[in-house]
Specification:
Oligomer: single chain
Family: Belongs to the short-chain dehydrogenases/reductases (SDR) family.
Protein name: Short-chain dehydrogenase
GO molecular function, one term: oxidoreductase activity
Number of domains: 1
Strand order of the largest sheet: 3-2-1-4-6-7-9
Helix content: 40-55%
Order of helices and strands: EHEEHEEHEHEEHHEHH
Keywords: Oxidoreductase
Distance between the termini: 61 Å
Number of strands: 9
Number of helices: 8
Structural class: alpha/beta
Pfam family, one: adh_short
Bound molecules: NADP nicotinamide-adenine-dinucleotide phosphate
């Protein structure tokens, strides 16, 4: 029987590439997004669209109920929706801080809480959370984003123990630098030029980070790894994918912090005079 995956943030980037990959590989896809009417996508027997904003619990419940009604069963959920609040922490407003966590952390938790009764009923299901290489290491000017992804890493790792006896798997996808709207339209860039002391650092480091986004890996590569996580039948928890994740994460694990921080500094602060 055809399996079904529900994806959050399927309008763009990794979510969209994953939607295409699963449809091509004979899965049903419940593609959820904030504005399906703007997606330009056509529904079919194996692809249905639902309105879902992860910060709106009613929309989460309605989308999940709609997908279960249409497909009968959901086998996997991909928590992909997210964005980066990036820049000078001191310049961020309380609203910007909250929105980062409401989306990346509480939004993911709300989708998981909504799907768990369905997964428990069937004693089966796979929860796949997209964290980031930035859920285990950090770069400058990403403090809010890293905080949200480190939270998701710890949350997901703990959750995988308690759900295993119920037949429910948790998987963590840790993408590296992926060429998507993450570095452009989706980014909430936070700065206040009146905070003059920060400006040389912001200018030099942001230029390097933006350039690395432009040279990122194709989102299809992440989609393939997500497919593997959903189908490999293993107990593996983490899947690092896309440079630099597969080599930077082991470096972080094995190098003394002092050396690791020196490598990060050398790579992103190179424009600083
Ligand atoms: N790109 C990278 O280098 C990278 C690296 C590591 C991890 N990631 C993670 O990968 C995930 C996908 O990002 P991406 O790179 O594919 O970026 P993207 O192209 O900007 O896509 C982000 C997706 O999330 C959706 N989204 C944002 N806020 C939402 C909300 N409140 N409710 C529902 N959907 C929402 C966006 O919807 P709209 O179209 O409505 O804006 C869009 O579909 C994110 O969790 C990101 O943190 C990305």
């Amino acid at each position: 029987m055809r399996k079904t995956i529900l994806i959050t943030g399927a309008s763009a980037g990794i979510g969209k590439a994953t939607m295409d990959h699963f449809v091509r590989n004979n899965w049903n896809v419940a593609a959820t997004m904030r504005n399906p009417e703007n997606s330009g996508l056509n529904e079919s027997a194996s692809l249905k669209l639902y309105t879902l904003d992860v910060t709106n619990e009613e929309s989460v419940k309605d989308a999940l109920a709609g997908a279960i009604r249409d497909f009968g069963r959901i086998d996997a959920v991909l928590n992909n929706a997210g964005y980066g609040a990036v820049g000078v922490f001191e310049a961020s407003t309380p609203e910007q801080i909250r929105r980062q966590y409401e989306t990346n952390v509480f939004g993911t938790m709300s989708v998981i809480q909504a799907i768990l009764p369905h997964f428990r009923e069937h004693r089966a299901g796979t929860i796949i959370n997209v964290t980031s290489v930035g859920g285990k290491v950090t770069f400058p000017l990403y403090s809010l984003y890293h905080g949200s992804k480190w939270a998701l890493e710890g949350f997901s790792e703990s959750l995988h123990y308690e759900l295993k006896p119920l037949g429910i798997n948790v998987k963590i996808i840790e993408p590296g630098v992926i060429k998507t709207d993450f570095y452009s339209r989706s980014q909430d860039f936070i700065n206040n030029e009146a905070l003059a002391e920060y400006q040389p650092y912001v200018k030099a480091v942001s230029a390097v980070m933006q350039q690395s986004g432009a040279n990122g890996v194709r989102p299809e590569v992440v989609a393939e790894m997500i497919f593997k996580a959903a189908t490999d039948g293993s107990a593996r928890l983490r899947y690092a994918v896309g440079s630099p994740a597969p080599w930077l994460l082991p470096l972080r694990k094995f190098l003394p912090e002092k050396w690791f921080f020196a490598i990060v500094r050398a790579s992103v602060e190179k424009g600083l005079k």
